[in-house]
Design goal:
Number of helices of chain B: 23
Strand order of the largest sheet of chain B: 6-5-9-8-7
Distance between the termini of chain A: 27 Å
Largest sheet of chain A: 5 strands, parallel
Number of strands of chain B: 21
CATH class of the largest domain in chain B: Alpha Beta
Helix content of chain A: 25-40%
Number of domains of chain B: 5
Largest interface: A-B, 23 and 29 residues
Number of helices of chain A: 4
Structural class of chain B: alpha+beta
Radius of gyration of chain B: 73 Å
CATH superfamily of the largest domain in chain B: Histidine kinase-like ATPase, C-terminal domain
Number of strands of chain A: 5
Shape of chain B: rod-shaped
Oligomer: heterodimer
Shape of chain A: globular
Order of helices and strands of chain A: EHEHEHEEH
Chain lengths: 134, 747
């Protein structure tokens, strides 16, 4: 069964390019949304395994989205994919249950992101493994 | 006059004197008369004796011759009838006495004669006249004279007395009344009436004297009044005392000085003793001892005591007077309360000292010159420090002689402005030093009167450091703004870069001839994947795609560096051994692949000159490492490209420990850099390297790491052809700790 990915980014070309890159591997079902609100709507209909979230989004921001997803159990893993350099000033990734490895600074290597997604999913499949240290 | 010795009346005396005088005169005259009379009587008796003897000799010749005894006797007897005859003796030649008569009374005169007859001696006659009658005559005469004299004297005495009384006493009485009036202080007297012209001068003299005395007494009173006023109203205390400390006189100020309202109150309160006003009476005694040996007045500061016990400093000036009157030796003088003056003096002195210190120790150079010749009168320590001219080398010379005008043209400008406006404010001035160098300063100058000489005070501030700081600040501002912009634009640029990145990755992935999805898609449209791959290669499309990727990575790298400007990394600070970090940076430089391509870092002689006590410092290791790696790479790259090549490439790392800062210098002997490059060395995106080799951010980032992240300083010094030296100063941790310790001790 293919894992479910959700890409949330207000930049259309990022969404499409990233989706193109990842779908080539035939491992994921990929959806995308240009806003947090739309993403939540989609996720409530069907949750995802991994969300790739941009921080700066039109209304609700990426961090808020991650928090809601976690609260509502809409997605198990989140990756930050951001172009901003100073997001750490107002976002504590630890509190969001994420590590530095979950942060991808644009422009990033697609392969690196793919590797991280695979790793996270592997952690899930090995159910008896200790959850990732946060 | 002295009545005690009176008794003796002048008129009596005069009368007596006149009586005595006339008595003497009368006596002398009487004596003379007496002598003349006695002489005349003597003469008369002598001639009587002579006549009588001649008479006898002749009258007796015949009786004797004829031996007529009776006749001879009769003649002789008749002769003896004269009372004056005391002796008559008649003898014949045989010496037979014919007649002898002798009364036995003293004889005045005797005569003898020979009785001759025809020349033949026939007898002798001897006659003696008695003295008694002569004496009787003389005695009567003397008595008569004495009686007359006595009568005259008495009469004269009585007359003189009466006359003198009338002639002298009255005028003298008049004079006496005049003198008596003077004695009573009544100097305005009229002529008491001089009876005789002889007294007129005397009376005039007395009256004149009276007027003179009156004038003088008035003048004296006036003068006395004047001095009394001065005495009473003098602001200084005036006193007169005996040497043993009895206060005889003191004025109101003296009383006020000691806290009394009036002079009388003071004089009565002190019990007329001065001891109480001295804080230490021995001071007075010492002063008196000194005064006795001194010729005139002495001044001395002493501590006095007021009525309320408060002490004050007074300046006593006094002298000893050896008075002629019964009061004897006195101490006269003045006391001035100098407390206020001394306080003022002290304040003035302190103020003077303060300004003197301000002048001496001012960090700014201060020169005082006279206006006329520009000759230096005074300079401060900062002057000597900055110019190298010692005080004695500068004073007396002119600024031109010392070469203080590094640019002679400025001298005219300065002089012209001083003459026109009398002051100069903050003009740029190049100050010439003893070693020939010049220091850039700002000059302010003002006219100043020293005594009656017109002077110029010039203040110069060394702005070398300031200018450098200004440049650095401009630099910093530039970089901070770069940092700020970077943060702002990073997001906007990173998004498109992300698109480029992922899209180019997609291109790579979707052109891979062996990627399953690609093979599948090609097959569905009948494309020979091998041919496609061949086409891609032939046309260099793979290369283009890789270039796109590389460019995106490079752009991303630049953005990342730019973002470093605005980042502070204090949270990751640790206490590090700087030398270890530098050595690691050198090691990294040695293994730098990019660098190796052009230049082998290991060929460079890396020399450490490190202070023994170089302390550990607080820093973010990775950042400091990056700084030194940057410097080593720059040095190596510069030396690799140097024309002509550097024969013995060398990098010296000097580590010195100061009290507040540690200094690390990285010095190479490479080609150095021209001034315009040196000025812009830290500027972001400024690079002398070919495009693609350097971003122009290495030194900017290093600068920010040192200055913003580590509160240090970084600068560069370079001389083309000789090399470049980067100087990094970082806060000394030990110093900071020490201060903290001291603070905690204090608190």
């Amino acid at each position: 069964m293919q894992s479910r990915l959700m890409i949330i980014d207000d930049e259309e070309h990022i969404r499409s390019a990233l989706a193109c890159y990842l779908e080539d591997f035939d491992e994921f079902v990929i959806r995308s949304a240009h806003s947090a609100e739309l993403a939540l709507e989609e996720l409530r209909q069907e949750p995802a395994d991994v969300c790739i979230v941009d921080i700066r989004l039109p209304a609700m921001n990426g961090a808020e989205l991650i928090r809601v997803c976690q609260e509502e159990g809409l997605c198990r893993h989140h990756l930050l994919h951001t172009g901003s350099a100073d997001f750490r000033l107002y976002i504590d990734i630890g509190k969001l249950g994420m590590s530095e490895e979950d942060v991808f600074q644009k422009p990033c290597d697609g392969m690196a992101m793919l590797e991280r997604i695979r790793e996270l999913l592997r952690q899930d499949s090995g159910a008896n493994q200790v959850p990732q240290n946060v | 006059m002295d009545n005690a010795s009176a008794g003796k009346s002048l008129s009596k005396r005069l009368s007596l004197a006149l009586g005595v005088l006339s008595a003497v005169v009368i006596l002398a005259a009487s004596t003379l008369v007496f002598l003349v009379l006695s002489w005349q009587v003597g003469n008369r008796m002598k001639s009587q004796a002579d006549n009588t003897i001649v008479f006898l000799a002749q009258s007796l010749e015949s009786p004797l011759w004829v031996l007529d005894r009776e006749g001879a006797e009769s003649v002789a007897r008749a002769t003896t009838m004269d009372a004056n005859v005391g002796l008559l003796e008649l003898r014949d030649i045989r010496d037979e006495v014919w007649f002898a008569h002798d009364t036995g009374k003293p004889l005045f005169i005797t005569r003898e004669a020979q009785i001759r007859h025809d020349g033949q001696v026939i007898g002798f006659v001897r006659l003696g006249l008695e003295d008694s009658s002569r004496r009787r005559t003389l005695a009567w005469t003397g008595l008569a004279a004495a009686a007359v004299a006595l009568l005259v004297i008495v009469a004269q005495y009585c007359l003189a007395r009466r006359l003198l009384r009338n002639l002298l006493r009255k005028p003298f009485m008049a004079l006496d009344s005049l003198v008596g009036a003077y004695a009573r202080g009544e100097y305005a007297q009229t002529d008491p009436g001089a009876y005789y012209t002889e007294f007129a001068p005397l009376v005039d003299a007395f009256l004149g004297m009276g007027q003179t005395i009156e004038r003088q007494v008035n003048a004296l009173a006036e003068s006395e009044e004047k001095y009394r006023l001065i005495f009473n109203h003098s602001p200084v205390g005036i006193f007169c005392s005996t040497l043993d400390g009895e206060l005889l006189e003191g004025n109101a100020s003296l009383g006020n000085m000691f806290g009394y309202v009036t002079r009388e109150e003071f004089l009565s309160a002190t019990g007329l003793r001065v001891d109480a006003v001295y804080a230490d009476v021995s001071q007075r005694e010492a002063f008196l001892r000194d005064l006795e040996v001194a010729s005139g007045a002495l001044s001395r500061e002493m501590i006095f005591v007021r009525r309320d016990g408060a002490q004050f400093e007074g300046m006593m000036t006094a002298s000893i007077h050896h008075g002629a009157d019964e009061r004897g030796t006195l101490l006269n003088g003045v006391i001035e309360d100098v407390g206020a003056r001394k306080q003022a003096e002290e304040r003035l002195r302190q103020s003077e000292e303060k300004f003197s210190r301000l002048f001496r120790l001012s960090p700014d150079v201060i020169i005082v010159m006279n206006m006329t010749e520009g000759r230096i009168i005074d300079v401060n320590e900062a002057f000597s420090r900055l110019t190298g001219f010692a005080y004695h080398e500068a004073v007396g010379k002119t600024a031109s002689e010392l070469g203080l005008y590094a640019t002679p043209a400025i001298r005219h400008l300065v002089r012209r402005r001083m003459q026109a406006t009398g002051q100069i404010e903050n003009i740029d001035f190049s100050l010439g030093c003893k070693d020939g160098k010049s220091v850039s300063c700002v000059l302010s100058s003002q006219l100043l009167s020293v005594g009656d000489e017109e002077c110029v005070m010039a203040v110069m501030r060394d702005v070398t450091e300031f200018k450098r700081m200004q440049e650095l600040m401009i630099q910093s501002e530039k970089m901070i703004s770069v940092g700020g912009i970077a943060a702002g634009v990073a997001h906007e640029i990173n998004n498109p870069l992300g698109i480029i990145m992922v899209s180019s990755q997609n291109l790579v992935q979707r052109t891979k001839p062996d990627f399953p999805k690609n093979v599948e898609a090609a097959k569905s449209i009948g494309l020979d994947m091998n041919l496609f791959d061949q086409y891609m290669r032939t046309r260099g499309l793979y290369e283009f795609i890789r270039n796109i990727q590389d460019a995106a990575v490079r752009a991303a790298e630049i953005i990342r560096h730019m973002l470093d400007f605005s980042r502070r990394s204090e949270s990751r600070r640790t206490v590090c051994d700087l030398r270890v970090i530098i050595e690691r940076a050198a090691h990294l430089a040695g293994n730098d692949y990019d660098l190796k391509k052009n230049y082998d870092f290991k060929r460079i002689d890396l020399v450490f000159e490190c202070d023994e006590n170089f302390p550990a410092i607080s820093c973010t290791e990775t950042e400091i490492e990056q700084v030194f790696l940057n410097l080593f790479r720059n040095a190596a790259q510069a030396m690799s490209t140097a024309q002509p090549a550097v024969t013995e490439p060398r990098i010296v790392v000097r580590m010195r420990a100061g009290t507040e800062l540690v200094t690390v210098e990285v010095e190479d002997n490479g080609p150095g850099m021209p001034l315009e490059v040196e000025r812009r060395a830290f500027e972001p995106f400024f690079t002398t390297k070919p495009p693609g080799v350097g971003t122009g951010l290495g030194l900017s980032v290093s600068y920010f790491i040192i200055t913003r992240s580590h509160d240090g300083r970084m600068r560069v010094e370079s001389r083309p052809g000789e090399g470049t030296r980067f100087i990094i100063e970082l806060p000394n941790l030990e110093h900071g700790q020490k201060e903290e310790d001291e603070c905690s001790h204090d608190s």
